[in-house]
Amino acid sequence: MAKSKIVIATNPFRDDEQKFSLNIIKALKDDGHLPVLVTVFDDTNKDNVMFDLEDAAKDASLIISVGGDGTFLHVARRVFSLNIPVLGVNMGTKGFLASLEGNEIEYIRLAAKGEYRISRRMLIDYSIIRSSLIINSATAINDVVIKSDISCIGMSIFSDDAKITHFSGDGVIVATPTGSTAYSMSAGGPLVEPEASNLIVTPICAHAMANTSFVLSPQREIIVLPERLNGRRAFLSVDGQEGISLNQGDRIVINKSEQELLMADMGIRSFYTTVFRKLSH
Description:
Blueprint: E1 5-10, H1 19-30, E2 34-39, H2 53-57, E3 62-67, H3 69-79, E4 86-90, E5 100-101, H4 105-112, E6 117-130, E7 133-140, E8 143-148, E9 153-159, E10 162-169, E11 171-175, H5 183-186, E12 199-204, E13 214-216, E14 222-227, E15 234-238, E16 244-246, E17 251-265, H6 271-279
């Protein structure tokens, strides 16, 4: 069997002293693979040789994220454009994205051999348009959130050229199906199968009857107009990252991305089993 380069991207705040990751490395070496260890959220170079994630991922056949869903998002955001499958190992709490648990190392060994199914996940692109100029744009795995800091603001939301809702509230979440189990769910949004292709629009603490989610076709273009910002602060945040300040008159355009995230699915638990187990505790 040809040796496969496998990147282990570990969160040292979840994987104490990298004990679990080092066990993975030993098992993969025993199986004839070439494991490379990368530490995320920490610049400390201990006794192990560390590599930059993007450099380490070159020519890799699989990337293993060790941590929680936050770790998985951090890793996936940096490598999805490389079209290398990402496998999540949960060392955190909920773990909707990190599908394996820390006691399932045998499945990691199978994944390193290529014994997994590719789960293709839809992504979304956004642009902030200010005075006819794009001032910021990026791609989201889970969601794009437009939100005030503490004040109630207005929101007008369009699907293509049709206004679908207008409300006063804290903001709005535009999520992918993968992100439907994250902030969108906490705000009352629907659960959507993660391999579906939909745009999910969920108001945050909207007044009156406007507190209704919309599940839209991936062909739609969503336009969000934050209103009544004079003297109020509002921000756009992508996948829980630091917010970008918005101004009155800004226009946020959101579309299905041409890129996608490849996830390694071991097929040991269905989406519904995972949701039931995670949400019943």
